[in-house]
Write the structure tokens for this entry.
Amino acid sequence: MTSTIEDRASRRPTLELIKELEQTLYREVRLLDQERHDEWMEMLAEDLHYHMPGIETRYRRDKTETLHDLSRMCYYNDDKSTIQLRVDRLKTGTAWSEDPPTRYAHLITNIEVEPTERPEEYRVYSNFYAYRSRNERDEDTLVGSREDLWRREGDRFVLVKRFILPKWSVLLSKNLNVFL
Amino acid sequence: MPVNGQVSSGGDFGKLIDLEEGWIDRRIFNDQKIYERELQQIFARSWNFVAHESQLPKAGDFLTTYMGEDPVIVARQRDQSIKVFINSCPHRGNRVCFADVGNTRRFVCNYHGWAFDTAGKLSGMHAEYGYDETDIDKSQTRMQPVAKVAAYKGLVFATFDPDTPSLEDWLGDFRWYLDMLLDNEEGGTEFIGGCIRSEFPANWKFGVENFIGDASHAGWTHDSGARATTGGISFPDIDMENSFHSSVNGHGWEFGTEGVGDIAILGSPAIMEYYEKLRPKMADRLGKMRSQIWGSVASVSMFPNISFLPGISTFRIWLPKGPEKFELRTWVIVNKAMPDDLKREITKRVMLTFGPGGLFEMDDGENWSNCTTVNRGEVTRRQLLHYGSGLSRRVDDHPILPGTVYRGQCSDANQRLFYERWVDLMEAKSMKDLPHRPQPRMTGRETRELIGVSAL
């Protein structure tokens, strides 16, 4: 089903809607930074796809599509059940690399909202800057962009798809124990 | 507790390792001079893993990697052979290729436009009129080639030292074990597309020794991963009677014989079912013992810096980047004959468990990092480290298992024998002097030499 230009114009996001989605993104990372993972899980749709590809450096003339090819190695290629496993690990009490706890701050910027073919779903672009600090002086910063699909469910939005595009090639960190 | 004595880092490396009682001097993990000797004595002379043949299917396909800290280009030639040469222009030394992978007819330096063919030979340059005929012999000018390239069942290795023993001798009887990974099904193996790289503030040997024999850490370090994937059940205790360490020339495989432990970590019934159906055919192909070992709780490292988990399908190298830093490069290795949806499932599950964000991998880095940097303490590093687990459990002349065999998977045996090989290389004046550890049983099985071979 294709939508006409008129349809799309009629669904152009209002300021109110943009504000609501912005607040949703901010609330999401506040829950993550406060390790309130169960509440965060409630923001995820049952049909979630959470995807972050590995990054290869290639010459411009090389047109090989690698970013959306799910048969390749990805940092994350998760559905809600595997995200749940990651959250369950944190709750075991024996996730040693999270005890003492890591200090996290996610900064979310460059938010844009676009309508999609489905009236209840919106595409949301954003950039992230995630800072992590552990123990004495372990420090990491992770920077990238995201392309999300959020679906209206009653009086809230749930995350249906997240495509995370990291801006590093070699991850300059001993692990990736952070949701982005 | 013993403390270390005076050992100069210029020689006497045997004094850093006490194999009899199982002690190791901490300085091997963060001393700059020892690290520099490792680059000279080990990485500049060993067979370094550079590619899986499946990464370079067509002429002109290339990838870039490192042998020690030396950057190299690995490229498939028109005659199907694979050439390996240093990624540095002979003119001013600039790095020539900046892509991780690709396909090309030539490599051109950004600085003065010096152009090289896929074998690394100079073919021309920008402003060539600046050179008179006698100024340069183009036919003799090239990016520095390695001394030898060879492959074993898909894995491509290169060495800078012409005196390094053949790959066949280097691997020795370890091929008996290696075939469980590389030859358990008709068609052999391939790498899945992509390579995930991450940098750890830790000494490279901690990654290697962890995979070569450290079954003991799994139940503690990775308890959170085990409990998350099993709905709350920790790793079972190791069966010390029916599990082993085996070491050949510093390569080591630690393994159980229960057949399912590593496969189960992936948490996928489809993957388990595939291997269970394959197991009888594996027994015909490799014998009953190996078909029972395959899939068991196991981990492997090959000297000096290659590791993998058979059954879990992660394959990796630990590239040295200074005494306190390494880059981990990981791939997913699968059987070519597997259906595409199973390859995809394995890839997904490997990343879920042993990617940088993996349920198991996540807890390793912090240990290795702190094991390394704590030794900046002058007095801290004087205390020797204990490597004495399983000193007396050696099994002489096992009827089936080749190599130096120790009973019991929770052991430091493979680790000690890795460091014995480390001393061999650190001290050997010539690679011709390297001893067999132990004397090989297998003979007459050739690994393919890739130089000048027209078909693979």
In short: Residues 172-445 of chain B form a domain with the Naphthalene 1,2-dioxygenase Alpha Subunit; Chain A, domain 1 fold (CATH 3.90.380.10).
